[in-house]
Amino acid sequence: MGVVNITPDSFSDGGFFLALDQAIAHALRLLDEGADLLDLGAESTRPSSRAGGDAPAVSAEEEQARLLPVLEGILRVRPDAILSVDTYKAETARAALVAGAEIVNDVSGFLWSPAMAAVCGELQAGVVLMHTRGRPEEWRTQPQLVSDALLAMVRDGLAASLRVARSSGISPEAIVVDPGYGFGKRFDENYALLARQSELLALGCPLLAGVSRKSFLGHTLAPLFGGSAAPVEAREAASLAAMTAAILQGVSMIRTHAVRPAIEAARIADAILAAS
Question: Is 255 a catalytic residue?
């Protein structure tokens, strides 16, 4: 799953692809590199953002104004492209699905918009249900959890999202779950979650992992960068290491900013699994 951020402030590439022609060109490049599908987002959910609150920094109208022209532009050139929309707003999900998106990637797991599950059920969308602990402005102050408590929190939260999805008529075959690396998990908690990620397969759904360029990787690399977290542009090798670990721990889909290196890493991980 290739990432297309149509935002001025995303932690990884904010502002790089905000212009319509740049966003479409980037999306087509990711497809050419071998992405199976694209995830288009028009609001940053970086730590400390106002995403998910009563007064989000990006309104549904602004989100759609950024998102829909890019979505439509991609489909004009590549009508067979599989597109996911990264949003927690039901209004934006509906508009994107009507415009040709097939999947809704909701970072809140249906928690932040009461109407989201009904929209996805009505329009027969595929869904990615992510676990998020609190809202972005709360992430830096969350108490540390031990491994067992962390895994139980993620498992129980995803199970609750699955119940909402199924009660809204969403087919089990249309659901993927995401542990939500970095979304309300403190630095070391992400590694504890990654080490035990395969236990989440008991939920009965394929797993997606979004570890690409995340801050917990930069934090771990700090001793190599004079004690400061590695900058985003220096996290690619660490991202590939984490992606490989995620595949070996049972994920079926990787969400990544750099598609070609991720494909190469996935081939190696798949070869290891095939030989085991």
Answer: yes
